[in-house]
Each structure stands twice: as structure tokens, then as C-alpha cells.
Amino acid sequence: MRRLFQVDTVIDRPVAEVWTELTAWDRAPRWMNGVDTMRVDGTTVTYEARGKTIQAEITAIEPGRSVTIVNKQGGVTAQYVYKLSQEGERTRATLTADLQISGFPTVLLGPVIRTAIKRTDSGQLQNLREVLERAGTRDST
After folding, report:
1. Rounded alpha-carbon distances, angstroms, from residue 18 to 32, 98, 114
2. Are 111 and 1 in contact (CB under 8 A)?
3. Where on the tree of life does the source sit, at the highest rank (predicted)?
4. Rounded distance, CA 53 to CA 50, Å?
5. Max CA distance (Å), the chain
6. H-helix or E-strand spanning residue 102
7. Which residues lie closer than 8 Å to 66 by C-beta, 6 or more apart?
8. Phi-psi category of 14—alpha, beta or left, where left has phi over 0 and alpha has psi -120 to 50?
9. How many CA atoms lie within 13 A of 26 on its CB side?
10. pLDDT class for 138, splitting at 50, 70, 90?
11. Per-residue pLDDT reduced to its tens digit, 22-61
């Protein structure tokens, strides 16, 4: 697999609160661009995006710390690793995305696929931060 991107952000919320939102799969459309619905059954993640039903697998999980999700569609395999760490009263969230593209004609579309995934998914943590901090502002008023 080849690194597609790594992003991080600091969220003004404790790790437990960020973890709860990160793994509240039915609420993922609030911060995942293009995702209309999401649910988890065991380790299988099923979501609707752009009119398609897609399945992915949770391949690793450390409750409160990290979750790894692998998505395979045709010749494209994407691995997303979400990690959380406490920084005082706040949380540092990191998302690492690795991508493998194989097979003809998928390989020919590699640059387009990489650009599209990066554009769509690299803003997830920023969106998650906005959702959590906006909710926290409402809670404190």
C-alpha cells in the first residue's frame, strides 16, 4: 500500500467524547463527505455513498484509541487508520489513509482515483472537529 495522506487536528473535547462520536457509525454522515448512511454489524461496515451500497471491514480496534477500516472495491483497496490521543483537556486526532490500486484498467485511473479519494476523505477530521465543537458550544449555553 502507498500512503495517500495523513492529517491531524486537535479537537477541544476529551478523548472519550471524540471516540464516542467517531464510532457512532449511524452519525458518521455528519462528518464523512458523501456518506448518506452507515451501520456496523460485527466488523462489517455497510454504508451508502453516491447511490451505492459499499462494505468495508474493521480490521483492528483499540477502544478509545484507534480503529482501522479497510475498504476494497474492485482493484482499489483503501485503509483508513483513525488514532486518538489525549492532549490535556483536548484530543489529537490523526487519520492516515493508504491506498493500493491494481489491475487493468483501474491502474490507468490511479491518479484520478487518488485525487478523488484525497479530496473527499482528507477533510473528515476537520468535519468531525466542527461537529463536536459545535455540539459542545450548544451544551455550554
Report:
1. 15, 23, 28
2. no
3. Bacteria
4. 9
5. 56
6. none
7. 60, 81, 82, 83, 84
8. beta
9. 1
10. low
11. 999 999 999 999 999 999 999 999 999 989 999 999 999 9
CATH of domain 2-139: 3.30.530.20
Q: Tell me, what amino acid is at 35?
A: V
Q: In what order do the strands lie in the sheet with 2-11?
A: 2-11, 90-101, 76-87, 66-73, 52-62, 44-49, 35-41
| Polymer length of the chain | 141
Domain ranges of the chain: 2-139
**Short-list 70, 68, 69, 74, CA closest to 101:** 74
CB 69 within 8 A of CB 80: yes
Distance between CA atoms of residues 87 and 110, nearest Å: 37
3-state secondary structure of 111: helix
Residue 29 φ then ψ, to 5°: -60, -15
